[in-house]
What we know:
Order of helices and strands: HEEEHEHHEEEEEEEEEEEE
Amino acid sequence: MIRLLIVITFCFYGCANTVSYYPQCNFPDSVLKQGGLLKKNFDPKENKKSIFVKNISCYEGKIKKLVSPIPFFLKREIYEKEGINIQKGNFRESRIKIIDNKFNKISKENLSKIKEESEILKSKLLSNFETSIINFPLHHPSAGVISSEFGVKRFINNIPRNPHLGLDIAAPIGTPIYAAESGLIVLARNFFYRGKNILIDHGFSLKTSYSHLNRMVVQEGDMVKRGEIIGYMGESGRVTGSHLHFEVIFIGEKLNPVFFLAKD
C-alpha cells in the first residue's frame, strides 16, 4: 500500500512537470520588415483589432505566443502607433522587354481560364489543415541559383507589373523539388500563369507554393513529409526559362521565403 502511494505521488509530480502544451510552434523570432512577421508573448487583454487582426496563437514550450504576418503592402503608420518600427525594404527593379505576342496578348478564352483558376487558388488558400507541431527553418525547396528575390519591382516593356512576392530558384529542367515542411497537398494542377503548381498546407495557417514544374509526382489529398520529392523543375506556364517560383503564404499573406529558410 505504501509502495503504491509512492508510485502515485511520483507520477503526479512527474506528469505535472512534463505537461505538453499544444499546438507547438517554432516560428522564427520577429522580423520587422515587409514580408516578415511579428511574434510576441500572448496577452489576452490586448486589443487585436489593429496590426494583429491576422494572427494565430500557439506555444513555445509552456509560453503562449501570438504570431502575425507583416504584409508587403502594409500601412506603416498603424504599426508606428503600436510603437513598432517596420524597416522599409530596398527592392531592386527588374525591366524586361518581351516582343513575343504569345506573352503579350491573351485571348478571351485564356482570360476566362485565368479568372477561373484565380478562384480555385483562393478557395485552396482557405484550407485549414490541423497539425500539432511545425518546424522551422523550412527545408530548401530546390538546389539552384536565386534568379529573383522577394519584392522585386517588375516592369515588362516599361509597364509596371505586380511586385515579385516569391523566390525564384533557377536550375536545369528536371531538378528535384522538395516539400519545405510536412503537410497536405491541397492543390496540384496545371494553371495558365503558374504552370504546373503545387500548394501544400502545413497547418498553422502556413502554406507553401511551387510553380512552373515540369512534372508533379503528388496528387491533391496526398500527405507529404518534409524533404520529400514532390516534383521536378521546369518552365511550364508563363515563363521564359526553367526555374521554381517558391512562395511562403501565412494567413493569406505572401511573405519573404528567405526569412523562413535555413541560412546557407
